[in-house]
Amino acid sequence: MSSTGSYQPRQFNLSGLKGISDQTLEMHFKLYEGYVKETNNLTGRITEFIKDGKVDQDEMPAYSELSRRLGFEYNGMVLHEYYFDNLQSGGGTGDAAKTSQFVKAAEATFGSYDIWKTDFVGIGKMRGVGWAICYENPANWITLHETGNVAGFNPVLVMDVWEHTFLLDYQPAERPKYIEAFFSNIAWDVCDERLRRGLAARSASL
Ligand SMILES: [Fe+2]
User: Fold this and answer.
1) How many CA atoms lie within 13 A of 87 on its CB side?
2) What is the pLDDT at residue 137?
3) What is residue 150's predicted lDDT score, i.e. its pLDDT?
4) Rounded distance between C-alpha atoms, residue 142 and residue 132, angstroms
5) What share of the chain is helix, strand, coil (3-state, %, to 5)?
6) 30 CA → ligand 1 middle, Å
7) Dist CA 7 CA 73 (whole Å)
8) Tens digits of per-residue pLDDT, 141-183?
9) In angstroms, what is the span from residue 138 Cα to ligand 1's centroid?
């Protein structure tokens, strides 16, 4: 999982969202940069442990903890990139267009877009900190950043529901308002593109 590569924080051209302030976004970009920094830091330290080709018995506890932390930080970095990428600067148009790839996929799996949305929003309202992610097939709840990801599934729509996403704009109990705001800012063309790439990769491997 570790590599010697060093990640650079990506810059997101994102502002003027509906119901999610620029102040929240700026704070959120800084948090994201923290995950990138920590991913690099842990990767570097793990690289030190393994460069002699072995992990000694006395090194194992520290090595294990660093590796566990890397799972948290690494997923924190990647999920934030998915999240910022599926938001539309200046605000979106609300629900996905009926002709979109996304609606077709939601209908094929859930029967209708509205039922898919009920599930996704319901997951987003679950108590605790984490993420709601719609993968190429089912929707899922991710605790923290790393627990609950499904191996090999393609994240199509990623919603951060940690409290830092809305506490500057809403009260702690107002998560549903944030989720509503999130929906009004989704870049559905990005979701469609992710779906197309996922389907293409799957058919290429058959
Ligand atoms: Fe976040």
Assistant:
1) 28
2) 73
3) 83
4) 6
5) 55, 10, 35
6) 10
7) 12
8) 888 887 888 888 899 999 999 999 999 999 999 999 999 999 9
9) 22
